[in-house]
Design goal:
The protein is of the alpha/beta class. The protein is built from 24 helices and 22 strands. The strands form six sheets. Strands 4-3-7-8-10-9-11-12-17-18-19-20 form a twelve-stranded mixed sheet, sandwiched between helices. A two-stranded antiparallel ribbon has the order 1-2. A hairpin with a 5-residue loop joins strand 19 and strand 20. It starts with a helix and ends in a 19-residue tail after the last strand.
Length: 734
């Protein structure tokens, strides 16, 4: 597996918990999942003064790091412990009130059901350190001891030294951190030295989709193997489960944790010359948001498989299952939708009639079809598959449904039932709560004309367009949502009779067939809070970024290339220039990460030599936009190689080699920026008079359009109506 692909996988999160994993058995006194919270209405984090550090670093071996975040708010409960799975042993006992996870004595672990000696609600662990080494002619690192004789060597300043790495682990802000650096001369585990460190630090961010309430797992060997080439060059590497998005998406907590992990490193080794961020998917999101919200935390970014942020993905991702249900069930007799590539006309995301699938994606597609056939459901049996299914199935309930969590088996039933889950619930300190005590939801599809471009291009006719928009519906208010019915997902019910891969029972499709299905009105206070709290990437950045990814469109992977251009479009809108971002797309058989590090080094060196010049002016040729083939050769490079429909220019050579796709909202008329939570509305009459549907004449259908869209239809020429006016670029111009 390539380093680039490894970087996208959340640390230790891919495998389900082992049967013997400890569970949370109790909650703190006074726990109230429905406690009222006002939406965040303060300054953007880029304008906030952070408090002074209160903890004294370094954390020495055997000591315990800080458990209370410095500025990111109170501790969250319940909190699932993963110290044991990460090699730190059981968490420390911190109460006898049956709150958190039971802790047993070492002697008692031989018994099947040992009595606990106490409980851990905060999952803390004492700091430990080990030496790891890379054996000659092997890829995997192993634990080092004095008896080892097959240690590989690396060259530091022309001198060969053993490839032995000191690895330190402990807890900071309750998350598990890792620090890795070459073993220095004359050092001990308790007193490391920086003699073989090149003075540069890598912060490894990791991805995944998490909704909080867990500590997260990390394996030191995985960190070492992922950054082996850079460690051999003398870089130091730090990471944390608190900067892993399979754990959570709280960008304040990620920042708070990253700052403290760096402080621990600095206290041990000294101030780095600069810090380079690296990481894929959610790891890339963190780099964009942290560079925006906390300038100086990282000095450069290698954003792999990027998206601009998490929350604006939901704008279009929540459309996927609504559309798939429409194609599979509501309009199943229309043979047009029996071909996956026709669904792409409306969904925008890639689709393939010849898709065979691989791994988990194939399992989802195959078992869904078998289960539906076994249940004798009346559904379309499509030829091929779409990215909506292969890449995104199961993520809407994880992010939206407060009664679903993939870590359900890590909690006692009575604990699970008292908690409200979902991405929005995890961040309700920002989004706030509604009158029923649930997190406010910014998602909105009022006025969205699904398939508008397909109508304009003649791919669907007026009747198909009208039926689609009348019947597609929306999601129920979260207070009305029920448990999931997709047995491939942990935490979901498994009754085959109620099987629903689309979460259809949580959709709002209306009560009668005569009236159009209702749309979902997003909460404008939640939209404003998303912007104000720094959850949205606004497009302002003062570091160099190489945005790098494999071209995964042929396998319908969720990490589609168009997301890199969403970032670029926001940079252009906010800054008027995107010269501090390079976009690299490579064939899957080549990992361009090492070249990205080398290019970033040259870019940083140019800035040190000429600090008065812009990142754009200083960008070296090695950091230009490019596309790369399977043998690692640059196919094309330069300023115009990624031109295309997204920026209104003829397609450049890289765009022709690796074409990008759209999403449901782009097909509905939005731009590639993808930052319209709430579109401005125009009346149907205004849309008709303005020629919105041309070359199709929709005037004969005016009454039906007005019935389907009583509030009007989206006018994407105007800025997001949910964006606060006092933020930079509120008018959509930057």
């Amino acid at each position: 597996m390539s380093l680039l692909l490894m970087a996208t996988l959340p640390a230790g999160s891919s495998a389900p918990p082992k049967a013997q994993s400890p569970i949370v058995v109790g909650l703190p006194a006074g726990f109230d999942a429905k406690a009222p919270i006002a939406p965040y209405d303060g300054p953007h984090p880029s304008r906030l003064q952070r408090p002074a550090e209160t903890f004294r670093f370094p954390i020495r071996l055997g000591e315990v790091g800080p458990s209370e975040a410095l500025f990111a708010g109170p501790r969250q409960y319940p909190f699932v412990c993963d110290t044991e799975a990460s090699g730190l042993g059981q968490p420390l006992v911190d109460n006898q009130a049956r709150v958190g996870t039971p802790v047993v004595s070492k002697a008692a672990t031989v018994f099947a059901n040992p009595a606990p000696i106490g409980y851990s609600q905060d999952c803390l662990a004492r700091t430990r350190a080990w030496y790891y080494y890379k054996p000659r002619d092997k890829e995997k690192f192993e634990r080092w001891s004095e008896a080892v004789r097959d240690v590989d060597s690396v060259s530091i300043n022309g001198t060969p030294v053993p490839f032995i790495v000191r690895v330190e682990m402990g807890t900071i802000n309750r998350f598990i951190y890792v620090i890795a650096a070459l073993k220095g001369p004359h050092e001990t585990l308790a007193a490391p030295t920086a003699g073989h460190w090149n003075g540069r630090l890598i912060y490894q961010f990791s991805g995944g989709v998490g909704i909080g309430h867990r500590q997260g797992r990390v394996k030191p060997s995985r960190v070492l193997e992922g950054r082996s080439e850079q460690l051999a060059q003398g870089y130091a590497v730090v990471a944390s489960t608190g900067t892993t998005t399979s754990t959570h998406y709280n960008i304040w907590l990620a920042e708070d944790t990253a700052v403290r992990v760096k402080r621990q490193f600095v206290a041990l080794y000294g101030e780095p010359e600069y810090t380079i961020g690296v990481g894929g998917s959610g790891g890339a999101i963190q780099q964009y948001l942290l560079a925006q919200n906390r300038p100086g935390l990282i000095d450069a970014a290698i954003a792999q498989y990027s998206y601009p942020d998490m929350v604006t993905q939901t704008i279009w991702a929540f459309d996927c299952e609504l559309l798939e249900y429409y194609f599979d069930r509501t309009d199943r007799r229309n043979r047009l939708w029996h071909h996956a590539e026709h669904r792409q006309w409306v969904e925008g995301l890639n689709a393939r009639n010849d898709y065979q699938g691989e791994g988990k994606a194939r399992a989802i597609a195959t078992t869904t079809r078998l289960a539906l056939l076994a249940g004798e459901r009346r559904v379309a049996d499509p030829e091929g598959q779409t990215e909506c299914v292969v890449g995104w199935r199961g993520l809407t309930p994880l992010v939206l449904n407060p009664r679903f969590a993939s870590i359900e088996d890590r909690l006692a039933r009575r604990v699970f039932r008292r908690v409200q889950w979902s991405y929005f619930e995890d961040l309700k300190d920002f989004y706030g709560t509604d009158a029923q005590g649930y997190a406010r939801i910014p998602w909105d599809n009022v006025g969205v004309q699904y398939g508008l471009r397909a109508l304009q291009r003649g791919q669907i006719d007026a009747e198909q367009f009208l039926r689609l928009n009348a019947r597609v519906g929306s999601w129920k208010p979260v207070a009305e949502m029920e448990r999931e019915r997709f047995w491939l997902l942990r935490g979901a019910d498994s009754d085959l009779d109620d099987f629903s891969p689309w979460s259809a029972h949580n959709m709002n499709r209306g009560k009668t067939r005569d009236a159009p299905s209702p749309r979902f009105e997003g909460d404008r206070l939640a939209m404003a809070a998303a912007y104000r709290s720094g959850q949205v990437f606004l497009g302002r950045l003062d570091i160099p970024v190489i945005d790098v990814r494999h071209y995964l469109e042929p396998v319908l992977d969720m990490h589609h290339a168009s997301a890199s251009f969403s970032v670029r479009a926001r940079l252009l809108a906010a800054q008027g220039d995107a010269g501090n971002q390079a976009i690299w797309v490579s064939d899957r058989k080549h990992d361009p990460t090492p070249e990205a590090f080398a290019a970033i080094e040259r870019w940083l060196a140019a800035r040190r030599a000429r600090p008065e010049q812009s990142w754009s002016a200083l960008r070296p040729a090695a950091a230009s936009d490019r596309c790369i083939d399977a043998r690692g050769r640059t196919m094309f490079s330069g300023d115009r190689v990624w031109d295309g429909e997204w920026n209104g220019r003829p397609a450049g050579p890289c765009m022709r080699a690796y074409p990008i796709y759209d999403n449901p909202r782009i097909v509905a008329g939005d731009t590639i920026r993808g930052d319209h939570f709430k579109c401005a509305l125009q009346t149907v009459g205004e849309a008709l008079d303005g020629g919105l549907y041309e070359p199709v004449d929709m005037r004969p259908y005016r009454a039906r359009l007005e019935q389907i869209f009583p509030q009007g239809v989206c006018d994407y020429r105007q800025a997001d109506q949910g964006r606060p006016a006092d933020l930079p670029g509120a008018d959509g111009t930057g």
